[in-house]
Amino acid sequence: MATWDELTAIRPGAALRLRGDEFVVERTICFEEGEYVWWEHRLSSDNSGRSLWLEIATAPAKAVIAYDSSAALGSVPDGGAGIEHRGEKLALLLSGHATYRSVERSAASKRGEIVYHEYGAGDLRVTYETRGDGVWEVSEGRVIDAADVDILA
Known about the structure:
Blueprint: H1 4-8, E1 15-18, E2 21-33, E3 36-44, E4 51-57, E5 64-73, E6 82-85, E7 88-104, E8 111-121, E9 124-130, E10 136-144, E11 149-151
Antiparallel strand pairs: 1-2, 1-11, 2-3, 2-7, 3-4, 4-5, 5-10, 6-7, 7-8, 8-9, 9-10
């Protein structure tokens, strides 16, 4: 079980276990929006062939979210007060514009800006984002218990 300090110190090359599956952190992206900071870690597993994104905020009161899937979106989301996703109504939780910088395991770092809209209901999260190239992605994830993450190395 990882502590909050350990979760916020994860960087590329770290090994961790999430709900029984072992992963390596391939990429870390640090987002900043005013004084609010959060990290997203790209995890990959050679054993299962699975990859996902793990979102961790700097504040322990914020949720840890594991995003299992993402896809290009054929339209521009309006960032409205709510959406319907797979028959479930989700409310707008966050919407904004942040800068980011990446730390890569085996490539040069990147910098840029992101526009995002995050919706949620219960532990379900759906996020729309674009990194300034006009292409929007939609990602689906779930809030997880920080205790589900074990730092291995």
